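Batch manifest, entry 17 of 40.
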Amino acid sequence: MVIFLIKLVVFDLDNVIIDGEAIDEIGKIAGVEKEVMEITEKAMQGDVDFESSIRERVKLLKGTAVEDIKKVADELPLMEGAEETVKTLKEKGYLVAVISGSFDLVAEPVKEKLGIDYLFCNRLHEEDGILTGEVSGPLVEKSKYDVLCGILEKEGISPRECVAVGDGANDISMIEAARLGIAFNAKPALRKKADAVVEDKDLRKILPIIEKVAEADDKLNKMSYDEVMELKNEYEDKLSAIASERDELNKKAREMKELRDNLNSELRETLNRAVELRDKRNEINSQVEENKKLRDQINKEIRKLEWSSGGRDRIKIENEIKRIDKIIETRVLDINKENELVKTANELRKKLMKIQEDDETREKALELRKKSEEYHEKVVALSEEAQGYHEKMLEYFRKTDEIRKKADEAHEKFLEFRRMASEKHEEFKSTLGEIRQINERINALRSENRSARRRESREKDIEEKERAREIYEKFKEGKKLTKDEILLLQKHRIV
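Output type: structure tokens
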């Protein structure tokens, strides 16, 4: 008995046979590209049902000229490798079908060009060459599975003799029903359901997948019952090992995710603390600037008083004081250097006071200098405090860099483990599919064996009846019968 030899390959049209989404391209010429694409994406992801989405999108196309749509259809490129793939499949004797929610204006030229055996799609309604916004067809109210069943019934083949290739959520029904479901550059919703996944936009990539399945079926068909049972045991052991590896990878992925999340939480806390320290530093630096301004204002007053006193030495000292003050005002100095210059300036001012002739002026200058020193002391104290917060802030920012690096590393490991687990799961699904085929082959062989036993039993019964009739004739002739001969007569109720 031959089982599961592929006889039909069915494709979606948009983004599978043709490289693009026809309705999105039509939406461009209708001026509703954005609205149409948004609905298309929701439908492909499985967020809205296909019937509602197609009717809603077609309504947006109302008023579009049919001739413009035909031009769009002519410009839509075939998917890379589409012609070669269809040609190869047909040469191998497979039927090729397209089941699509797209439209006849787009699909019919593709059918003719590629020699597709079956095409099922929707029809855009028009009046006087203008779209009415209405649509009808098998893919409006029915699922792709329903349409596929019609083809299978007509051809007298089973879903287990079919390959389905699609890219969106509306392909799930036929993907799940088929012997082999292939997700071609597909949305996540379909990828989860498919037996195989093709990432590259080259339709030829599906050929070795189909060939592998066909070869596996052929090999399985040639095996004896004992060989198939041995193969089943091998695959079950393989499945168990794959499941263990997948579960371990998922465990590691969860661990990395937890570590990443904990590190990110720590990162947020550390970053918040660093920001708090920065804000505190900035607040204190503002106070430093305020006290500097007050100190500098007083120093200006002191210089004015000093300038009012005469003397050659006084001018010399004043010039030096000006030079130092300019350095302090115009240059960025560390606190120690600034303190040193301020100290020098103060000493010069003291000398200046000694040579002042006006006691009243000298007294006022001394009072102002005292205030200046008080403000400077505040500047020094606050600067030191700000520096402390600054250093702590830098420490926390350095810590955030370290934590962020660890969190990024954990995230990369999480993604890697998740990818590896996903690959293992795909291998698990593939192996499970192989076991399913092996089990069906076992059932077929058991059925064959039962049929053979029944056939042998019938043949044996016929032979025994013939033998019983011969024994009965012997009995009628008065010949002596053996015990076995008597039992045979009784069994077939000849006596």
